[in-house]
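Issue 218. Parser rejects a valid record. Input:
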Amino acid sequence: MIIVDTALKKRQAEGRPIRIGMVGAGFIAAGVARQLLSFTTGMELSVIASRRADPALELYRSAGREPRVCNSQSEIEVAIAEGVPVVTEDAFAMARAEGIDVLCEVTGSIEHASAVMLAAIEAGKHIVHMNAEADGTVGPILKQKADKAGVVYSFSDGDQPGVEMNMYRFLEGMGVRPVLCGNIKGLHDRYRNPTTQEGYAKKWGQKAAMVTNFADGTKVSFEQAIVANGTGMRVAKRGMLGPDFSGGDPYAPLVPIEDTIAAFAPYLDAHLAAGGPGLVDYVVGARPGPGIFVIGTADDPIQTHRLNLYKMGTGPYYCFYTPYHLCSFEMPYSIARAVLFNDAVLAPVRPEVGVIAMAKIPLNPGDEIVELGGYHVYGECENIEVIRNEDLLPIGLAVGCRVVRPLERDAPLRRSDVIFPEGRLVDTLYAEQERFFA
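Output the parser choked on:
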């Protein structure tokens, strides 16, 4: 950040702001737009693409800008050249438009987001996104395509996976080996649904399915999966360990995050002794939340002596943490890192962990899996070798599928348990990803 803000001031002084095209006008997009339009120097939010123009128009107008509605790539390019902000309902026209330096994807969709990001990559645009769902499904193949096109494909700082990766890189630079990347959650209940979460969603102006996606564990599964895919780490078991220090009571006193090391230590001992690359996981009921933590080890006796001096304890495991993640506040710096320094906050190296679909309720033939955070399935992390060997259904491919045989609650879905919709790009990309890496 200290380097990035100086570089952005220089771009501003030179009259060469980074020009951004953003896909989405929902909850997260509103925060990103506000940050870019009102508080960030050296950047210009040139275009917002939304399936409906009205929410995007409101984002600009709330910041005192009057945008132009454009319906074609040529119209978008003219407006950008004239310095006029643009709203469009054609995300693909924006992705291909000249004058855009980077595509910012913040929708949470999978099929549409993957298609738009692919179009932008093919047009030579950098990608910075906050879409763990798409990344956890087809991110590795999108990253391969971005590498081939010579552009950056990156998850964003500010969301927990990006913050975890910042800490991971920070520790590696100090000579501390990261052995567990963790996410701090306030709630995990696999059986939450849009009805149970409706009140909370209304309070914060969010969609009930999005809030359910957080509560039922699907979101944290995607978040930790993409950290694993960016670091080479694995999960200790299906669903991760996820120790819950609240005892199921959301009002229970929170334990200090460093006190959670004991819950992970036996698993880390066995995993590392077997030559494992480290683990991704999460905790419930710890403070400070909603932040992240990374557990590291150090072998050098002088380093361990000094870590003890600086109140990190006697080891062998040391807990480092960031007490917050500020999503839209921090995303602009991720954009700058990509465009100015060709630096990805977090990008997949190869598939290591995926997120599989688990039955939230007893499923019957004909049931359609409508959405993530819905009534039918929740997601759990699993190591990629198990997913392949057992032909498990990635939850990122499950939306839109129809069940063909009865399944009990908490049963993992397999590909043979569903009928897939025809003609989806995400299925094509996933198959290509499997051929490339497997």
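Fixed in the parser; the record now loads. The first helix runs from residue 2 to 13.
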